[in-house]
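Cross-check.
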Amino acid sequence: MTPTASAKVRLDAWLWSVRIYKTRSEATAAVRAGHVRLNGNPVKAAQAVVIGDRIRVRKAGHEFDLEVTQLLSKRVSAQVARAAYVDHAPPRVRTAIPMVPVRDRGAGRPTKKDRRELDRLKSSWAQVDED
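Predicted model, tokenized:
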């Protein structure tokens, strides 16, 4: 669906149609909870979206800064949905997950020295998490 420039689409329907949220009710709940802002202002789910609007979405510890380039009211393929907005947010930074030490099968119980080394390793992970 390619509406004219004067057409408007509900905010929750647009977020659902461009695949930011899996369901429209999930998009509506996020807007009501205050996780979505339109042009910097808190909005309601029925707020109309027009081309050129900026939408900020907080989802799963990441913030999206979307600029509307195309109005969609029905869910479309991922390629078409990706073309309907421009994301101005910086890319996500992935943190490295430390490897868990593995003991050889049949090695028996850990010795006191092994347990101390494991405790030191776990405490260093806790310090990394706090930073």
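The chain is about 30% helix and 20% strand. The mean pLDDT is 86. Passed to J.P. for a second look.
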